[in-house]
Each structure stands twice: as structure tokens, then as C-alpha cells.
């Protein structure tokens, strides 16, 4: 399934609304942008899914590796934080904890995309340092 150019334009319009040059954030892969401020990263992906002929906007921030010790306490805390935050949620993938929002993009406007980017960035900035220090875990360092 080919990536809809209108969806990419919507993401780039949202980035411009935030005062960010979308060209500087583009990844080598089409439909991906990487934002970085200090140690905080926010990844933006357009994910076309052929099975249901829809494209999803995924905005995600890597938070920390899941600790080998205190795993249950760490995961329980993520679930408790999920209860307190709006629209975003933690997920665990390949040994790492991430904060993300995923939506069908076809009905989103650029300001909706910007709100999702801001929400993930804000929540990630609030919890990342506390979680890594409290559980003595490493940040996730991946190329996106």
C-alpha cells in the first residue's frame, strides 16, 4: 500500500505549526520523522496497513528498558501512570517501555497531529527521568 502524500503533508504542517522545520526531521524512510530535544526523542510514523486499507499515525517516545529486577513494580507503575494521562499510553516492545499515541490519520487535522506530538513529548519529559532514576534502568537508544 502506497503512502498517501496528503497524510505526510498533514504531519509536516503540524511540525511547521510548532516552529519545527519538517525537512530537518525527516527520516530516510518515507513517512517517518524524528524529533529530539536534549535526551528526549519523539518518533512520528505513518503506518499504512493493507489488511484494512487504512493509514495510522503513530507518535512514540522511547522511555526506558524494562528492568530485570523489579519488573512487576515497573510495569505496575506504567499502568498506574496510564490511568492518569490523557490519550497516550505506555506499551512494552522488545524489552523497552515506550509512550505512544496511535490514531487513524484520515480524519485528523494538522492541529490534531500537533496536539498528539505535544502530548507525547510532554508526558515523556515528565516521566522518563523519574522512571530511569527510580528503577536504575537505561534509556532506550535506538536509531529510528
Q: How would the global form be characterised?
A: globular
Number of strands: 5
Query: How many independent structural domains?
Result: 1
Oligomer: single chain
Strand content: 25-35%
Plain-language structure description:
This protein is an alpha+beta fold and 144 residues long. It has a single domain, classed as Yope Regulator, Chain: A. The protein is built from four helices and five strands, in the order ααβββαββα. It has helices spanning 5-17, 22-25, 71-84, 110-135, and strands spanning 32-37, 40-49, 54-65, 89-93, 96-104. A five-stranded antiparallel sheet has the order 1-2-3-5-4. The model has no long low-confidence stretch (mean pLDDT 94).
Task: Provide a brief overview of the structure.
The chain is an alpha+beta fold.
Any descriptors?
Yope Regulator, Chain: A, 40% helix, 5 strands, 5-stranded antiparallel beta sheet, alpha+beta
Topology (elements, then pairings):
Blueprint (H helix, E strand, L loop, with lengths): L4 H13 L4 H4 L6 E6 L2 E10 L4 E12 L5 H14 L4 E5 L2 E9 L5 H26 L9
Antiparallel strand pairs: 1-2, 2-3, 3-5, 4-5
Amino acid at each position: 500500500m502506497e503512502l498517501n502524500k496528503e497524510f505526510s503533508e498533514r504531519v509536516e504542517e503540524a511540525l511547521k505549526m510548532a516552529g519545527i522545520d519538517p525537512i530537518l526531521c525527516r527520516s530516510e524512510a518515507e513517512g517517518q520523522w524524528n524529533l529530539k530535544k536534549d535526551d528526549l526523542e519523539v518518533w512520528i510514523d505513518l503506518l499504512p496497513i493493507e489488511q484494512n486499507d487504512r493509514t495510522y499515525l503513530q507518535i512514540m517516545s522511547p522511555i526506558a528498558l524494562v528492568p530485570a529486577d523489579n519488573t512487576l513494580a515497573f510495569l505496575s507503575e506504567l499502568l498506574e501512570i496510564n490511568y492518569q494521562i490523557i490519550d497516550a499510553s505506555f506499551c512494552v516492545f522488545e524489552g523497552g517501555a515506550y509512550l505512544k499515541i496511535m490514531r487513524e490519520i484520515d480524519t485528523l487535522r494538522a492541529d490534531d497531529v500537533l496536539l498528539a506530538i505535544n502530548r507525547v513529548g510532554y508526558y515523556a519529559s515528565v516521566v522518563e527521568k523519574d522512571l530511569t532514576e527510580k528503577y536504575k534502568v537505561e534509556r532506550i537508544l535506538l536509531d529510528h
